[in-house]
Structure formats: structure tokens, C-alpha cells
Amino acid sequence: MIKKIVRGRGGSTAATGCQLQSWRVLVVDDDPDMLVLTRFSLSDFHFDARGLEIVTAESAAAARELLAAGGSFALAIIDVVMENPEAGLQLVEHIRQQLQDHTIRLVIRTGQPGLAPERQVIDQYDIDDYKEKTELTAWKLYTTVRTALKSYRDLKLIEESRDLLKAARRHAIDMLAVASEYKDQETGDHVQRIAHYVRAIASELKLSEAVCDAMAEASVLHDLGKVSIPDAILQKPARLTAEEFEVMRTHAAIGARILGNAPGFEMAREIALYHHERWDGSGYPAGLAGTAIPVHARIVSVADVFDALVCQRPYKQAWPLERALEEVGQLSGRHFDPEVVVAFLALHGSGRLQEIQNHCRGPGTVTVPGGVQGRSLYALT
Length: 381
What we know:
The protein is an alpha/beta fold. Helix content is 50%, strand content 9%. β5, α4 and β6 form a beta-alpha-beta unit.
């Protein structure tokens, strides 16, 4: 059975005017008297200018239904022995493992401590407090709930601060990416395609979704250092001289210096610095080889060269798709990490590569017959 009651002078179930939304507390116990006593003991409770919205369930199964219905709780007070001797502990595991809710504060209370020894429960389950019902007086219930809500509030503040920092970092990346586009509009189109390729390759390598997203986000800054390259070199429609190519090569180190040691930009800095390194150690600027090259830079390297091949540039016509794929395959083990190449070619086999190209199709992505004219392959990017 599920019951619901709203209590507390300092809050409401919905924020209106200057009122703040009530703290939502889930109380799970198969003893109706305990539910009544809990409601009564907390009837005048308020913390941080907010009252309580108490939602009750008389079984772990009923609590699961409430949780599945949506809406977050700040705190759950859970009995251990209900429909089975470990029903409450199984509910804790459901909340933490299946629902992946690590913010809600969980307080276990039991009338049969012998069936759920305190030390064992605290060591094995992700809970915040353990109380025997006989010791949970009205005052101790008040202090337990207040402590739990304070912890929940602080966790939410930390989450909000982290989200704000992520948003600020994302905004900074966008601004830097826009800055790199002012030198060359094709660079802007190029970095957006690279982000899609990088995310897809990383996913094919079975990296976590969070890592895939971070790599894609950081990859848009791989050519940031090109803002320092003179237009006469960047836009030159012919082969670069040896001196000009040396100037072009400086963009990797310059991009890394622009990003510096700012927190949150470590991956972007390594990509900018190392995406021209080669698997066999013949790349630049550091001559790194094999796995000494960060994996995110190895992934961007494949995506960068492929995109340069299939797109028309001031100094070359675009390569046909099949020829570009063949070239990437031939460079496996020399220019590129073989595992990254396998993952990249798998995108073509699954049709994902074509989906990305269609999604990102723009002025620079029209493939026309022909090959490289002017610069060598390794001066393309």
C-alpha cells in the first residue's frame, strides 16, 4: 500500500512565489504504527526554510513502484524486514545499482537487529545511517533526518557547481573553436566532422560513452594552433616549400601552448600536440611511437587524415571514398594505430561512416574524381 502526506510549515509541494519546494522523504515500513509515528514526529520539521513531503510505502515492492513512477527523493528511511528478511536491503541495492541513484540519502532502521547486524549492513551496503527502532526517539529521528537532508543538499550543490563548470568549459571550447574558424572556414567544417568521426571510432573501440563524448569535444581544438599560421601558407594552392612546411608544423605545439595547463583541457591539449605523431615514431613534434601516443591523439590522427583525403582543399581535389579507405588501411602500423584503423574501417562496413558524411555534408565534403595535386599526403592536415 502507498500513502502520501505533506507536512512542514516551511515548504510546499511546488515552489510558488518565495516558497521553496519541500524535501521529499520516502518512508518504507510494513508496520502502520511506525508510519504514523514517523509522520507525527516529523510533523513540524523544517530545514533550510523547507518543510517535508512524506511519501510512505508499506513494502519494498510498493516503494519500487513509487520510484519507478518518477520524481526524486532526498531521503529514504527503510525498514529491513518486510515481505522477506532482506527486503529493505534489496531495495537499497535496487536504488543504488539498478536506478543508479547515488544522491538520495538512505537510512536503514530495523526492529530485528539480529537479522541485519549493524556492522555487516554498513560494510556491505551503500547506506548513510543505521538505526534500531528502539533507539530512534523523536529527537533522534529529527537529528537523523536533518543530518541526511544536509548531506543531500550539499551533494546537490556540488552537482550544480560541477554542471556549471562543465558548461563554462564547453563554452570556452566553443569560443576557441570559433576563433580557429576565422582563419579558414573549411577548418570550421572540418573540426565538426572530426568530432563525429572521433566519437564513432571511440565507440567502436568500446570506450565508455563519457570518454567518447570527451574525446569528441576535445577533438574540435586539434588544429587550434593554425590561428598562428600565416594565410599565405594556410591557403597556398600549391606545394609548400620546406621552410613553409616547418612553419606549418609549429601549429601542433602552438595549439598546446594556447591551451596551456588549464584544468579540464588536458585531453584537448594532448590532442593538439600529438595528433601528428605516427605509430612508427616518424611523426612530429615529439617523435612518439606506438602506445606512447595518447589514444585520443591516435584516434584523431586517423579521422584527421581521412577527412583531409575525402575533402577538397585549396591545394587538392577530393579523393573518392574507396581510395581514401584503402589509403588509411595501407597506413596501418606505420602512420596509424592498427586497432584504431580496424575500428575506423568497421564504421564503413556498418554504414556508420556514410551516415556521418551525409549528416555533416557541406561545401568541403563533395567528393570528385582525382587525387592529390601539389602537396604530399603528410602535408594535408
